C-alpha cells in the first residue's frame, strides 16, 4: 500500500506545483480622450459675424506679429476659416495667437488660434472664458501656416 500512498503524494505535489491558472482580467479601459470636446460656435454668432463683422485683428505670439483686415472680402474670407465642426481643446496645446472680430469698433468675439499637428482649431471666448471650439478649414490652415512661415522667415506680408 505504500507505493499507492507514495504515488498519491506525488500526484498531489504535481497538482499543487503544476502550471498556475491565469486570471482573466477585464480589458483595460480605453484612455480618456485628451482634452475637452467643446460645443461649436452657435449659428447665430456665425450669422452675426458674416453680416456685421467689419474688422479683424490677428495677433501672433511667437514671433510677435500682428495684422488686420478691414476689406469686406478679406474679413469674410477669414470668417470662412471657421469650420462648422466642433473641436476638442487640449489645454496642453499652445495657441499660435489670438483673433479679434470687431463690429463698428467694438470687439464682438475673440478666439485663440491653434495650428499644430493634430490641433488646428479656434477656441472662442465668451465672458472671458473658453466657450466654443471649431476646427479650422483647410484654407484656414494654409492661410495661418503661410503667415507663420513668412513671419518666421522675416518676410513681409
What is the residue-mean pLDDT, rounded to a whole number?
A: 83
**Overall morphology:** globular
Q: How many individual β-strands? A: 9
Structural class: alpha+beta
Estimate nothing, just give the exact number of structural domains: 1
User: Which stretches are low in confidence, meaning pLDDT under 50 for 5 or more residues running?
Assistant: 1-17, 21-33
Gyration radius (Cα, Å) is 29 Å
CATH top level assignment = Alpha Beta
Q: Record the strand order, biggest sheet.
A: 3-2-6-7-8-9-4
N-to-C terminal Cα separation, in Å? 101 Å
Number of helices: 4
Task: Please describe the biggest sheet, giving its number of strands, its sense, and whether it closes into a barrel.
Answer: 7 strands, antiparallel
CATH architecture: 2-Layer Sandwich
What is the name of the CATH topology?
Dna Ligase, domain 1
The string of secondary-structure elements, in order, is HEHEEHEEEEEEH
CATH superfamily membership, which one?
A: Uncharacterised protein PF16224, DUF4883
Amino acid at each position: 500500500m505504500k507505493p499507492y500512498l507514495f504515488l498519491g503524494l506525488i500526484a498531489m505535489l504535481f497538482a499543487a506545483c503544476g502550471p498556475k491558472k491565469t486570471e482573466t482580467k477585464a480589458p483595460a479601459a480605453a484612455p480618456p480622450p485628451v482634452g475637452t470636446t467643446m460645443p461649436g460656435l452657435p449659428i447665430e454668432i456665425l450669422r452675426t459675424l458674416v453680416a456685421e463683422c467689419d474688422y479683424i485683428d490677428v495677433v501672433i505670439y511667437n514671433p510677435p506679429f500682428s495684422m488686420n483686415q478691414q476689406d469686406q472680402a478679406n474679413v469674410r474670407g477669414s470668417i470662412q476659416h471657421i469650420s462648422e465642426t466642433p473641436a476638442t481643446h487640449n489645454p496642453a496645446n499652445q495657441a499660435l495667437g489670438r483673433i479679434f472680430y470687431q463690429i463698428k469698433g467694438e470687439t464682438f468675439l475673440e478666439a485663440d488660434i491653434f495650428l499644430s499637428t493634430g490641433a488646428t482649431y479656434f477656441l472662442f471666448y465668451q465672458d472671458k472664458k473658453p466657450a466654443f471650439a471649431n476646427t479650422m478649414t483647410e484654407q484656414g490652415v494654409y492661410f495661418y501656416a503661410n503667415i507663420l512661415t513668412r513671419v518666421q522667415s522675416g518676410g513681409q506680408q
